[in-house]
C-alpha cells in the first residue's frame, strides 16, 4: 500500500491522500481581493485531479498588507465567494486550506511597505511598524481566521516565510528592533506567538505555519533557529510546519529535486512536530520515498500541479495505485470501470 495514497488525519481533519497543493500566489484577483471565476476554474481543476488538501494562495489579512492582485480576507465582503469556492472543492472530495499573510516590506503596492526595522526590499523602502500597528496586525490575523471559519475552510496556514512580515520579524537579519519584538530569538518570535494566540482563540481546526528553514545568509536564521521556533509553535498548538526556505536575502539558493526535504526531516525529528515537504517534488516515487523514510507527513506539490492538475493520477500510476476518478470521467481513466451505457 502506498503511503502517498493512504488516508491520514490532522486534528480531526481526514485527508484522502497525503498530497497537498502548495500555496502559490497567482495575483489573479482584482483590487477588491475577491475570488473570481478564474479561481473557481484554477482550484477546481486540482480538486478534479484528486488533490487531498488544496492550500489556497496567500490571502492578505489587511488591505494595506496585500500585493496587487492578491486575494484577501480583510473584509466580511470576501466571505460569500470564498464559501462558494470552498463548497465547490469539497464537492469533489478535496479538503481546503487558506494561507493568511501580510506582505510587509515585499509588497508591490507603492507606499505600503512596512517591516520590523525599516529595511528596503527590491529597491523599495519600508518603514518600521509602531507597537500600536503591530497590535493591529495581530488583531487582523484573528479577524481573518474568523472569516476563514465562516467560509468553511478546513485548515489555516500562517505564512511566516520568504521575507514577508511574519518572517521579517523572525529573522535575525531583518529584525533589528530593540524593543520587546526584537533581539533574542524569544523576542523575535513574539509577533508570530501573538498571531498564533489570536488565531487559536477563534479557530479550533488544523493550524499550519510555513517557515523559511534556512535564510541562506550569514546573518539570517538557519535550521537551528527554525527548530527552536518549531518547538514553540508546537507548544502553542500548531499542528504542522510547512517547510520552505529562502526569500529573505536577494540571493537565491541552488535548487534541485527535493532540496528542501532535509529541513522538513530535521524539524520533524528534532521538534517532534509533523511537517510538509516542498520543493521540486515531481514524481510519485519521490513523494513516496519522503513519506516512507519518515522525512515528512505531507508532500506539498507546487509547479508540477500547475503543469498537470491531474498529477495525483500520474503519481498513482507510478506507484501501482488506482485512485478514484471523477464520476463523469469513469470509463476514460480506467476502461474496465466503464458503466454499461459507455461500453
UniProtKB/TrEMBL annotation:
Residues 4-319 form the NADH:flavin oxidoreductase/NADH oxidase N-terminal domain. It comes from the Bacteria. The keyword Oxidoreductase applies. Its cofactor is FMN. GO terms for molecular function: FMN binding; NADP binding; NADPH dehydrogenase activity. Keywords: Flavoprotein, FMN, NADP, Oxidoreductase. Gene3D superfamilies: Aldolase class I (3.20.20.70). This is NADPH dehydrogenase NamA. It comes from Paenibacillus antri. The gene is namA.
Amino acid at each position: 500500500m502506498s503511503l502517498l495514497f493512504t488516508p491520514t488525519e490532522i486534528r480531526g481533519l481526514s485527508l484522502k491522500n497525503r498530497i497537498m497543493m502548495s500555496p502559490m500566489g497567482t495575483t489573479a484577483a482584482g483590487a477588491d481581493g475577491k475570488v473570481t471565476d478564474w479561481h473557481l476554474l484554477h482550484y477546481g481543476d486540482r480538486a478534479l485531479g484528486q488533490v487531498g488538501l488544496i492550500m489556497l494562495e496567500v490571502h492578505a489579512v489587511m488591505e494595506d498588507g496585500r500585493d496587487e492582485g492578491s486575494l484577501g480576507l480583510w473584509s466580511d465582503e470576501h466571505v460569500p465567494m470564498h464559501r462558494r469556492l470552498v463548497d465547490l472543492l469539497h464537492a469533489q472530495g478535496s479538503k481546503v486550506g487558506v494561507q493568511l499573510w501580510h506582505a510587509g516590506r515585499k509588497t508591490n503596492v507603492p507606499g505600503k511597505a512596512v517591516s520590523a526595522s525599516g529595511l528596503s526590499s527590491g529597491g523599495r523602502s519600508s518603514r518600521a511598524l509602531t507597537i500600536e500597528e503591530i497590535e493591529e496586525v495581530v488583531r487582523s490575523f484573528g479577524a481573518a481566521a474568523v472569516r476563514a471559519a465562516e467560509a468553511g475552510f478546513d485548515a489555516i496556514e500562517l505564512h511566516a516565510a520568504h521575507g514577508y512580515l511574519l518572517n521579517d520579524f523572525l529573522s535575525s537579519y531583518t529584525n533589528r528592533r530593540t524593543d520587546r519584538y526584537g533581539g533574542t530569538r524569544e523576542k523575535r518570535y513574539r509577533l508570530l506567538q501573538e498571531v498564533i494566540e489570536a488565531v487559536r482563540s477563534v479557530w479550533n481546526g488544523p493550524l499550519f505555519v510555513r517557515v523559511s528553514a534556512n535564510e541562506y545568509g550569514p546573518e539570517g536564521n538557519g535550521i537551528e533557529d527554525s527548530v527552536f521556533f518549531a518547538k514553540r509553535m508546537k507548544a502553542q498548538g500548531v499542528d504542522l510546519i510547512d517547510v520552505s526556505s529562502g526569500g529573505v536575502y536577494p540571493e537565491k539558493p541552488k535548487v534541485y529535486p527535493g532540496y528542501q526535504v532535509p529541513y522538513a526531516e530535521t524539524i520533524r525529528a528534532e521538534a517532534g512536530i509533523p511537517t510538509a515537504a516542498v520543493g521540486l517534488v515531481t514524481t510519485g516515487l519521490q513523494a513516496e520515498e519522503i513519506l516512507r523514510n519518515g522525512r515528512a507527513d505531507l508532500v506539498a506539490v507546487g509547479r508540477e500541479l500547475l503543469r498537470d492538475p491531474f498529477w495525483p493520477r500520474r503519481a498513482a500510476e507510478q506507484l501501482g495505485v488506482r485512485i478514484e476518478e471523477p464520476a463523469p470521467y469513469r470509463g476514460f481513466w480506467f476502461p474496465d470501470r466503464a458503466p454499461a451505457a459507455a461500453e
